[in-house]
Amino acid sequence: MAPGSPQPQHLTSRDNRWLKRFAAALAGKSSSAEKCLGIEGLRLVEEALRSSIPIEAVLVSETGRKYLAQLASGLNSSKAVLATTDRLFANVAGTESPQGVAALVTPRRASFDDLMRGPGQPLIVVLAGVQDPGNVGTILRTSEALGASGVATCSAGSLGTAHVFSPKVVRASAGAVFRLPVAEGLSSAILLAQLRVAGVRTLAATSAPDAHDPTPPWHVDLRGPIAIFIGNEGAGLPAEIERAADIHIRIPLAAARGLDAKNVESLNAATAAAIILYEASRQRAHAESVSPVQSSTKTPRTQTSGANS
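RESULT FIELD:
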């Protein structure tokens, strides 16, 4: 054991209550009363410790004990430090080739007011029915990297957004979900009303062919308080969000050489979100030097993409 490493409590039975809790949390099957989230892998556990979110327990395997010295500075008496065999750890792990380190954490759940806070103008990303965990996690990671003040999720009719604290989303977010304010499971109608009262313009990333005057994001002023709505991978945004949005935006796509434009696939939801967020970040970083065309500009006659696929 390296100097300064915490001395773990050793767990030897697969029926141990800690191992059962880790198995359920890492599989995303914790009960509704269970507030803890299971995370796995050295990087995610390090990110959780750095973010100062509440951590109930850290579990290492025989192989993973070597990481305790690396994690020691973030561990204290309020956190249970546990160890088990490689075999028992593999039984509770959520990955095929576990590194041998996992944790039970309590994620922070943000409110609407949390989304509005930040050093600059609010830049909120709203996921409406984005179901693929990889897309959700990637959008969270991109939102943090490009300066979003927070992310909200809501349903798109009967289509819900992937749970932001599920293991797959957390892994895809690379820890961004621990640091970025995330308000989950909001009502789209209430959220739209709150945004309007707060003076936040709403932008719908659309792929609907009959959307009202859709505009490329670089022709829209993205420097003030805005909320960008990203819709379901296949169905896009619900009609009520499309109708309520202040501005409809699309990303023009150039047809590949020799192909009809209509055969070019629309962009993945996470890719579309990244392009829009990059443009917002660019404009905000050079607020005095950019003069984007106002939202009345017509979209060029090329195929365009919203937040589908």
